[in-house]
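To assess whether the prediction recovers the assembly geometry, we first specified each molecular entity separately, as shown.
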Amino acid sequence: SQQGEEDPQALSIQEGENATMNCSYKTSINNLQWYRQNSGRGLVHLILIRSNEREKHSGRLRVTLDTSKKSSSLLITASRAADTASYFCATDDTGGFKTIFGAGTRLFVKA
Amino acid sequence: SQTIHQWPATLVQPVGSPLSLECTVEGTSNPNLYWYRQAAGRGLQLLFYSVGIGQISSEVPQNLSASRPQDRQFILSSKKLLLSDSGFYLCAWSVGVEYEKLFFGSGTQLSVL
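The predicted structure of the complete assembly is given in tokenized form:
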């Protein structure tokens, strides 16, 4: 089954800097999502971008999707210590109800 | 508003013992329900999903099973736990036109010793 692969696996930045995480996937998709997980907690949905969209914004988050390259990026601007978490991309099983997650990027924002 | 309850939060079980994890959703009808497992520091593995009462799709052959006895109740079970069943188990739901968007419970940390 298709699966997103995030890059980098881990990222450490200073507060106020921007954080960029990338996701690549293997087969056609209807949509791609990004989720956030604080340590030991459930995942929280951040943003969904459909295959006919190229860019989407939500607050300090910016997501891009390039279906020709089968890749997506998540940009967090002006990062804060509270942004420290793992971030996962997830892709759908076209026409089905399955959502498949990548291994995630662990972001650490130093105050 | 919709809420999801998952319990227990932590569970320590001996190898060979049975397992029952329960998840319930409130405030919505006919949700799609999911069980995922997460190994430490890893991504999520889809175990089971259900689009209706009594309808269970299994993604990974293993000694786990799932049941949906009521519309908003999803149960993960095992008759005999293995060491490899240890992990963080997450229940999730979705519904309606935004069925791709998942809402997760707080998870159960299962340690099989």
